[in-house]
Design brief:
The chain is α+β, with helices and mostly antiparallel strands and about 140 residues long. It is built from seven helices and four strands.
Amino acid sequence: MIKIYTTPSCQSCRKAKKFFEEEDIPYQEKNIFVTDLNEEELKDILIKSENGTEDIISTRSKIIKDSGVDVENMTISELIAFIRANPSVLKRPIMVDESKIQVGYNEEEIRVFIPHERRVREWACKKEECPTFSSCNSAESN
């Protein structure tokens, strides 16, 4: 199941949710201001991010600027505690599944969350041109 970490006023979050709804891909939304982010979720996000804190923390955040916090030199435990206490430092949206993470909305990159079989079928048969696309077996024959 895909989890999307969002905030209500985030335009990119709305775009991401709209994408998943239009593609009929189930997801679980987690409003970071309402839902407590647990330690395991944050560890999962950190493990999947290629560049660690650089990928998920907004250094332009008012909290980071005002406090002078150096997230790069925090231990994992300190970082997780800091994020849990200050969830607004997270970039948004953060989309995570069993193996992938995407931070921010990118129209092309978000397609990695489309199930593999469906991406293959789309490649094999143009959706707009094929009236039986949803039940098409052309992907299996290629």
